[in-house]
From TrEMBL:
Residues 766-786 are annotated as: Disordered. It comes from Amphimedon queenslandica. Residues 741-786 form the Integrin beta subunit cytoplasmic domain. This is Integrin beta. The gene is 100633752. Residues 1-20 form the signal peptide. The chain crosses the membrane at residues 719-747. One of its GO terms (molecular function) is integrin binding. Disulfide bonds join C33-C43, C46-C56, C188-C191, C239-C280, C387-C395, C444-C448, C467-C506, C472-C481, C512-C517, C514-C549, C519-C533, C535-C540, C557-C563, C559-C598, C565-C580, C582-C589, C604-C609, C606-C656, C611-C621, C635-C644, C641-C712. PANTHER family: INTEGRIN BETA SUBUNIT, INTEGRIN BETA-PS.
Amino acid sequence: MHLLLALAVILHFGSIQVYSQDTNLICNAQTSCNDCIQASPSCIWCADPNHSGTRCYSGQTSNVDCSSSNSSTNYIQNPASRVISQSNDSFTDLNQISPQSVSISIRRGQPVKFNVTVKPAPNFPLDLYLLMDLSYSMNNDLDHLKSLGGRIADTIRSISTNYQLGFGTFVDKPLAPYVDTRPGAKPCGTCQVPYSFRHVISLGNDSDRFNQGVQERIISGNRDAPEGGFDGFLQSIVCQDLIGWRRNARHLLLYITDAGFHYAGDGKLGGAVIPHNGQCLMPSQPANGNPVDYTQYDVYDYPSIGQIRQKLREYDIIPLFAAESSAEPFYTALASELEGADVGELASDSSNVLTLIQESYTRVSQRVIISPDNVPGLSFNITPISCPTIVGQACEGVTLDSNATFEITANLLQCSEALTQQATMVTFRVLGFGSFTVNVSTICSCECEQQQDINSTACSTFGTSSCGICQCNEGRFGDMCQCDGRDATSSNTTMCEISTLNGQVCSGRGTCVCGRCNCDTREGDLEYFGVNCECDNFQCDRDSEGQICGGRDRGVCTCDGQCQCLTSSISGRPYTGSACDCSPDDNTCINPGDQVVCSGNGECVCGACECNSEDFTGTYCQICTTPSACPVASCNDTMQCAICLVDNTASNCEACNDTINRVNGIGSGYMINGNRAIPCDFSSGGCEYRYYVALDDNGNPLPIHFDDDSGCAATVAPWIIAVSIIVALLIIGLILLALIKLLLMLLDYMEVKKFMAEVQDPKFRKNENPLFESPNKEYKNPTYGQ
């Protein structure tokens, strides 16, 4: 036992020593104060002009003395990251975030942490804009929306009395091949001529005017299945003045349709070949309160999904999609690309639109998601530390009597030119709740760099003294700029140190010139560097394609042979892995039926879920192996009752009558009584079925919601199929015989008609048979008449 303990202590201190040596190697290779403090958070620079030896060293090394006996000046340059200030904001009806602003100073490798709290405000302002598909297949939906009258306004008023309603419609680009472009052509007798997007009612609280605008709408139509709603979708977002979005309000954009959508590239079929510029292309105010049409449909292509995602984030708008069952998969996939989006299944006649509005609002208003701007060189890790339900990086179930607190960790990954020139303002958007800002000042240069002695005697009058070293003028080099580049020779190598790497001058990778190593050059981006050319940037791990540190966009090879991973320009998070070959993208870790990273029970590491504990397993950590540890209901406890719905012969079905509700077409992110539900799947009779389970706030199971749209299609008795086939064959045979008989009769009729025509109009000539000899002969008497 004592032997094992001693061995563990030896290994521990051995690992510390190895780490210290590696860090020292990185620090000692730096030749300037700025490079020193950027190389590692452990690196310290000694700016004492009288200091001899290595100036950049690891703070874990205790044998470096950076103090001058003739001065009380502190020459140690070791700046630390810190929170400079943060506002002390109180929560009000219009402010739901505290603090509203934070200022930090950050050094590479030294993260800064601070907390942000979000508390929902009662009666927070609400802006809801309805964007409805008016193609012909939505005829019944429009009729039902008209019949609702003022009930839509009443529903919104029950959510917030400080509300605004707006309304717009879309069909498709009035260009071929999307619609019939013939003059005066209409999809139907009572339809209006197709149009792209029509803004009808700006946001306001006049429910009568809103209802009147809905009542006056007339259905239209197009030819192809996808609709052209993206033109109107983008204009509804970016035309802030025309739509009337308020600054301090929760912005909801409800998109109602029964079909898929055209997107960037589809417009080229109609001649709209210019990519959309993402700008508002409509007037800022409607003329005399009349509807306003989008007229640039024939110039610009449909917007891209990326443009819509960017503009939704820029203007803090939450998209809600109400789509019929046939189109719901399209919008579920689209919602996964749009931050905070919600999808609900629309009934075939839109009869459940009010329910969808209430349920969607409940979900989005109780979900807190913090999303920072993507700034190259900076990364922010957002961790919920106090909220009712933690799901990945989001808080759910945040009601008026609760709040959500997040810990935000800021990291400086690289000192880019943009970050070092001035402080960077980073906006953090809390979807549906507002935003706050973080003012980031990077520590990429030393304070001593600001004190410069030009043409200093310490630099032989040929350089600038700063931070204890000389920055030589052009053509001069050496520690004191004592070397002239025109007269320098490499014959004397005694002034260059012998490398501990291989015992050679300049590590065998360079030439000693006037006491300084000039490192050899390599092809391409490969290089040697360091005081003794002991470092290189090509002996780090490579990815599967042979690229060092995953390529220049993913990582940089440092002196210690380790990859320093960079930030992804897409997600704003750094790449991971020894070769920076693991993407921070977490799309592959999201269960299609849940839309939560690793089902909220794990982390996405290199594109795969790593579950937080042994209590969860599965591709998405969606399977709970220990029911007592499950934060949500277990599928195993409810499977038997679900089977009873499809199998009458199953056992113990009597106790299940009151625990199951049948629901048609359950969408992603489904909630049961405001609690997040998880999908459960099972097989019976060769068919796949799905149902959802959830727990209430006290941990008690809620009634099961069974998806009636899952499973197999209704089966038909075999004898019905056989009789149907026989009858169909007989009918087809009789039809074929009748057709053949009709064809023969038609041919006979045509021949008779031709014969009669020839008889009635003969074209014969009278001719004699050349072989015919007449029986009459005429002889003439030669003596007659003499």
